[in-house]
Amino acid sequence: MSYKKEQDKLTDDLRRQARQAYYASVSFMDAQTGRVLAALDRLGLRDNTIVVFTSDHGYHLGEHGLWQKQSLFEESTRVPLIVAGPGVTKPGVAVSPVGLIDLYPTLAGLCGVKTPVNLQGQNLAPTLQDVSVEGRGWALTQVVRGGGFKRFGASPSVGDNVHRFFGYSLRTDRWRYTEWDEGKEGRELYDHKADTKEITNLADDPSEAAVVAELSAKLHEAVKASFPADGKTPELRPEMWAPNLTNP
């Protein structure tokens, strides 16, 4: 899912062009954000408007040999998240990881809107008022591998008999810990204090065994909490649309 056969044809010049185009898109988005903020000032709406800047997960630009997304590395799982407006204190950077699942309870809380009791996200208002507030302290990311696309209600395909499993990654302020198929297909541990590019996998390092055990327990607890009460993945309705990615 993070690889397409076309990337094998990339030359150094095409790689430079790809990065240039990506950065140009970022600059263009930056400019449009400025236009929106200027309009809020012009219309006198700045003092009663909450602004959230975020995005879909990012693309790899050659890191780890990848040029797509849907990996569990930092470049694909991390997104920008900037919040400003009423209820937010002076500018600051919170180092504790949060997830996009936290946006709804946060905005509801800032706007005084009552929320259901079964929300899985956390209200980030305390952290927006004081960036030292840790909150939950981790973010969870999930991808799927194998098994074709029969789960979307598509017709049977060659990949339907392939073993399908999940990859889960838990990110704390220091560590990224990843398990593929509950560890049966591999584990990864990266120390962002010394390895921000996630190059050295420490999962099998005996000196980090205690860290692996702690993060594994925390990851399994987080994954369990992401499922419904019966512990089963809800079936998607057959009529739901899904793209055909079987021949990229």
Poorly predicted tracts of residues: 149-159
State the strand order across the main sheet. 3-4-5-6
Give, in order, the helices and strands. Answer: HEHEHHEEEEH
Write down the overall geometry: globular
Give the helix/strand class. alpha+beta
Largest sheet: 4 strands, antiparallel
Strand content: 5-15%
Gap between N and C termini, in Å? 9 Å
- Tell me the number of strands: 6
SS element count, helices: 5
What would your notes on this structure say?
The strands form two sheets. This protein has a four-stranded antiparallel β-sheet, covered by helices on one side. It has a two-stranded antiparallel sheet with strand order 1-2. It has helices spanning about 10-40, 75, 105-110, 125-130, 210-225, and strands spanning about 50-55, 80-85, 140-145, 165-170, 175-180, 185-190. It is globular. It has five helices and six strands.
Features:
248 residues; 26% helix; 14% strand; 5 helices; two-stranded antiparallel ribbon; alpha+beta; 4-stranded antiparallel beta sheet
